[in-house]
Amino acid sequence: MTERAIELVLIFTSILFIVDPFAVIPTFLAMTARDSPEQRRVLARRGAWTCAITLIAFALGGSMIS
């Protein structure tokens, strides 16, 4: 593997550890038990976009926090 590929794998696994989507699945299903499948999709997308925007904002502006 090249250095770049190793770095990308490290970044991906770090983000996966921080977000931990597998631990959130039971909570999400319990909180949306009465919602329709379409409503669950909408909520899942909204949560994923919120998480992505938050991670990107902190990645870009995190060095300014001190």
Strand count, sense and barrel status of the largest sheet are: none
Mean pLDDT: 90
Described by the principal axes of the CA atoms, the overall outline is elongated
Beta-strand proportion: under 5%
Task: Give the helix/strand class.
Answer: mainly alpha
H-E string: HHH
The end-to-end distance, rounded to whole angstroms, is: 35 Å
Helix content: over 70%
Quick synopsis:
The protein has 66 residues and is mainly alpha-helical. It has three helices and no strands.
Describe this structure in words.
This protein has 66 residues and is mainly alpha-helical. The chain has a domain at 22-66. Helices cover 80% and strands 0% of the residues.
Detail the topology: elements first, then pairings:
Elements: H1 3-19, H2 21-31, H3 37-61
Feature tags:
mainly alpha; elongated; 66 residues; 80% helix; 3 helices
